[in-house]
Design brief:
The chain is of the alpha/beta class. It is built from 15 helices and seven strands. Helix 7 (145-156) runs antiparallel to helix 8 and helix 8 (161-172) crosses helix 9. The N and C termini lie far apart (50 Å).
């Protein structure tokens, strides 16, 4: 039986900072198992929630949860990179708040058929959207050594990316790499003994990298955030929870682009000050992180960082 339990990370902090208005329009860009969506619906009266997910299983499971609430909501099966297009198709041009809970959900990891986990043996897949053509199998078995190395090094920040990529290519020259067990063993055999004794699993970084590549997670995130900023009403907020340094860097940089004077470098050399003011303000000067208690209760929250920006005018 599949484990459908997912514990939303920093739920109280997220909903408090989203500042939900009962009559507002809100978007959950990462529906998952509806943890944050449920909390938003509980605070709505005449407002409406739009929630996105690529995973049809997540949408089906969430429908069962949210149907219990007599509130107005709509679940949308699409990439949140298509945020503006999907909302415009429903005559929505401005919203009061948007939330992102990035990364992979516990049910996806725990579903042995999805190929996300290095802890179980299954066919290499890792697709959030099961209708998507590109899978982890394709990347592992057809991408060049250089592309594999770049993916593992860039998205996984894995110092032994070159060795892992070389050993993947050497192995697949003899037989295809069809399962997570095969890939995990290749990764383990590519690392020095001292790396295998560390607290995190030796395959964690490589699996993360391949998953990000399969689903174009970073590209979609940047595209979506740029749209989200333009969709906000005055006093509207975007709340983002990230679990990876590259995700957090994108969030931080996209937020900074609308805070920083585009002519900053010019005025820095002049004796006069710029009269430019931003339409936005960053609510979290430093990212909020989980409490020790939350980490103990939900170890997957350990790397989470929460950032918030508000449109002021």
């Amino acid at each position: 039986m599949k484990n459908l339990v997912h514990i939303p990370v920093m739920l109280d902090e997220t909903i408090t900072l989203l500042n939900v208005k009962p009559s507002g329009t809100y978007v959950d860009c990462t529906l998952g198992r509806a943890g944050h969506s449920k909390a938003i619906l509980e605070r709505l009266l005449t407002g409406k929630l739009y929630a996105f997910d690529l995973d049809q299983t997540a949408i089906n499971d969430s429908q069962l949860i949210l149907n219990k609430y007599d509130r107005d909501y709509l679940l949308i099966k699409n990439n949140f990179a298509n945020l503006t297009e999907e909302l415009r198709a429903r005559n929505i041009s401005k919203v009061d708040g948007i939330i992102y809970d990035l990364g992979i959900s516990s049910p996806q990891v725990d579903d042995e058929e999805r190929g996300f986990s290095y802890k179980t043996n299954s066919r290499l897949d890792m697709r959030m959207d099961q209708n998507q053509k590109l899978t982890a199998w394709d990347i592992v078995n057809t991408y060049s050594y250089q592309d594999l190395k770049d993916i593992i090094k860039t998205y996984g920040e894995e110092p032994f990316a070159a060795t892992i990529a070389k050993n993947i290519v050497n192995f697949r020259n003899k037989e295809t790499i069809d399962t997570t067990e095969q890939l995990t063993n290749i990764i383990k055999n590519s690392l020095p003994a001292k790396q295998k004794n560390k607290s995190h699993h030796p395959a964690k970084k490589t699996y993360q990298a391949i998953r990000i590549a399969v689903n174009d997670e970073l590209g979609s995130l940047k595209t979506s955030l740029v749209q989200a900023l333009k969709l906000l009403k005055p006093k509207g907020r975007i709340v983002v929870i990230s679990f990876h340094s590259l995700e957090d860097r994108i969030v931080k940089n996209v937020f900074l682009t609308v805070i920083k004077d585009p002519q900053y470098e010019v005025y820095a050399k002049l004796p006069i000050a710029s009269n430019w003011t931003s339409n936005y303000k960053i609510i979290t000067k430093k990212p909020i992180i989980p409490t020790e208690q939350e980490i103990r209760e939900n170890p997957r929250s350990r790397s989470a960082k929460l950032r918030v920006i508000e449109r002021v005018s």
